[in-house]
Write a structure and sequence with these properties.
Elements: H1 2-11, H2 16-48, H3 59-67, H4 71-76, H5 80-123, H6 127-132, H7 135-177, H8 179-185, H9 189-226, H10 228-233, H11 237-289, H12 295-336, H13 348-352, E1 359-366, E2 381-388, E3 393-397, H14 404-411, E4 419-424, E5 427-428, H15 434-439, E6 441-444, H16 455-459, H17 468-477, H18 481-485, H19 504-517, E7 522-526, H20 534-546, E8 552-556, H21 560-563, E9 568-573, E10 576-581, H22 583-587, H23 592-611
Helix pairs in contact: 2-5, 2-7, 2-12, 5-7, 7-8, 7-9, 7-12, 9-11, 9-12, 11-12, 17-19
């Protein structure tokens, strides 16, 4: 438990002054709350019952009587007692508001900083981590778990302070009034506290189970909503509902188990608390009858017990929430403890030199499973070597799984190779900062991702300061400008999540325009024309051909018509280069390229013949 308080203390960094102010207000609240029963007890004994002030009169009562003008004055002006009690209560309410305000400001500031930290950290984690991570669970940790921490810091931290203050002030105060009565009043406080601690130890693991079940439930919902079109296309609604039922039932069962445990705690703590009040009342009544204490003193003790018992009972809830917060903090720390992508420090002069676009790949090996041997011939890339001249267009062809997209990921430093070499203008890729490398590359991925923003904002992703004229020029190069003008809002059209309101071909052309607008020294098109019809593909290729020489271009595709105009073509199979040359050279040689060319051209010819009128 101590480690959890240490973690919470570290989270309060930057907000400790606010918590200090809140704690100061809490002190005033505690003192003022104790003042109300003291006024009532003093009025009953010394103004109504006529008890005389003497040497045995408790110091606090004697001081209060002096503030109220003495016992005789109070007896003649009884209205002073309710006025004093109202003033005490009103002042307590004011300080309670200030305490809550400061604690809320502090907790909201901490939650905001924690969310910013998590979001930034997730954006800098290695691709291998995101390959394994569950998106729904990550969302759960960044939202629900942070909210759990925020609620604890906003309320329960102050409740802990309140409980300690009450314990620190109540015992001396009650002992000063009556030692025997104080011992009776505290008889069952210890058992309640011990029970609360035992309950906390038992219920802590249940909170972890509930949080994990909720994370799994969120993951199923997120996956279903992301693929809602596929679900509907295959009429899988009933299957998805059945799949959702299992994690939903698991979450319900674990939550009900937690609720049962909490119900047991509140029931037993209520019984003990009421027993404490009953014991104090019975013993107090007996001692009043025997003349050992006064009615006012019993009133004070019962009032103070009423003030104390609720925070003591709350300790169980506080400890329970501490367990829940402990689980949330553990899940948050699991993310923050993952090391970020390593960033080499390159000399400024090295980074300032403009990149010409010359690439050199030497004996490159890569395996997607970290720790696996990469030079066994069974990896994604197995001894790849080639060169690209500045401004050259290199086409890459190969069957699925040949290593084409893996090569693109390595060039972007989404993954790092451990054997071989990739050099940009003679500079080793792994010695260059990732952000700088990615700034030099414009890329269109197999599945282009568009954000739920305007088309203009999506196009400006790589160059936020690009003027409208250049945006339109890039859109024309991608053959999407005329299509955009048909939209009601033009470039200000808001597209849906993941660009869902656009067709597949439109999304690809927007992604191409986005990459062209970036004006990078290196341009990578990873099967970027697969969803575009042949006529539009020809227009895009012609526009890109006119830009030849502006950037070193790598074109990855399965459609050979996309590759025919490249300066050079390399053919991959099982992570190795099996053929290299121009389109004319490869189409005249025996090998994979020629077989694919013959298959595609014959299919196209047959298709055209079928379309001819009989």
């Amino acid at each position: 438990m101590f480690s959890q308080f240490t973690t919470i203390w570290s989270l309060m960094r930057g907000q400790r002054l606010r918590y200090g102010l809140a704690l100061g207000c809490l002190v005033f609240v505690t003192v003022l709350n104790y003042g109300v029963p003291l006024v009532g007890s003093t009025t009953i004994d010394y103004a109504v019952a006529g008890k005389e002030v003497g040497p045995t009169t408790p110091f606090l009562i004697a001081m209060l009587l002096r503030l109220l003008g003495g016992a005789e004055h109070l007896r003649a002006h009884l209205w002073l007692a309710p006025v004093a009690m109202v003033l005490f209560a009103a002042s307590s309410g004011l300080f309670s508001y200030l305490k809550g305000w400061q604690a809320s400001l502090a907790s909201d500031g901490i939650a905001r900083r924690l969310k910013d930290q998590l979001y930034d950290h997730l954006n800098h984690l290695p691709s291998r981590y995101h390959d394994r991570a569950d998106t729904g669970d990550l969302v759960q940790r960044c939202t629900s778990d942070v909210e759990t921490v925020r609620q604890f810091l906003a309320a329960q931290v102050m409740d802990i302070g309140n409980a300690f203050l009450l314990a620190a002030t109540a015992l001396p105060l009650l002992l000063s009034l009556s030692v025997p009565m104080a011992l009776v009043s505290f008889a069952l406080i210890g058992p309640i506290t011990i029970y609360a601690y035992i309950y906390f130890r038992q219920v802590k693991h249940v909170f972890k189970e509930v949080a994990e079940a909720e994370g799994a439930l969120t993951a199923v919902i997120q996956e279903n909503l992301t693929g809602i079109r596929v679900v509907r296309a295959f009429a899988r609604q009933d299957f998805e509902r059945a799949k959702f039922a299992a994690p939903n039932t698991r979450y319900r069962d674990r939550n009900l188990h937690l609720m049962r445990l909490m119900a047991w705690y509140w029931s037993i703590s209520d019984l003990v608390a009421l027993s404490q009040l009953g014991l104090t009342l019975l013993v107090g009544a007996h001692w009043i009858a025997s003349g050992r204490i006064t009615v006012g003193l019993l009133f004070a003790f019962l009032s103070y017990l009423g003030i104390m018992l609720w925070p003591v009972r709350q300790m169980g809830r506080i400890l329970t929430d501490l367990g829940k917060t402990s689980v949330a903090l553990t899940r948050i720390r699991e993310i923050l403890s993952v090391p970020r992508e390593s960033e080499p420090v390159a000399p400024p002069l090295l980074l300032a030199a403009p990149l010409s676009g010359r690439l050199a790949v030497r004996d490159l090996h890569f395996h997607h499973s970290a720790g696996e041997p990469t030079a066994t011939g069974r990896g994604a890339l197995n001894g790849l070597s080639f060169d690209i001249r500045p401004g050259e267009t290199l086409a890459i062809l190969g069957p699925s799984g040949a290593g084409k997209s893996t090569l693109m990921h390595l060039l972007l430093r989404l993954y790092d190779y451990t054997e071989g070499s990739i050099q940009f203008d003679g500079r080793e890729l792994t010695s260059l900062p990732r952000a700088w490398v990615r700034a030099q590359i414009g890329v269109v991925m197999q599945e282009p991702f568009l954000f739920s923003k305007t088309l203009r904002d999506n196009l400006r992703l790589g160059r936020g300061d690009a003027p409208d004229e250049e945006i339109e020029a890039a859109a024309r190069a991608a053959s999407i400008h005329d299509t955009i003008l048909t939209f009601a809002e033009g470039y200000s059209t808001l597209i849906g999540e993941r660009g869902i309101t656009l067709s597949g071909g439109q999304r690809q052309r927007v992604a191409i325009a986005r990459a062209v607008l970036k004006r990078p020294p290196i341009l990578i098109l990873d099967d970027a024309l697969s969803a575009i019809d042949a006529e539009t593909e020809s227009l895009v290729l012609n526009a890109l051909r006119e830009r030849r020489g502006h950037a070193t271009t790598l074109v990855i595709a399965h459609r050979l018509s996309t590759l025919a105009q490249a300066d050079r073509v390399i053919v991959l199979d099982h992570g190795r280069i099996i053929q290299t040359g121009t389109h004319a050279e490869l189409s005249s040689q025996e090998g994979l390229y020629r077989r694919l060319w013959q298959i595609q051209t014959s299919v196209e010819a047959d298709f055209k013949n079928e379309l001819k009128p009989a």
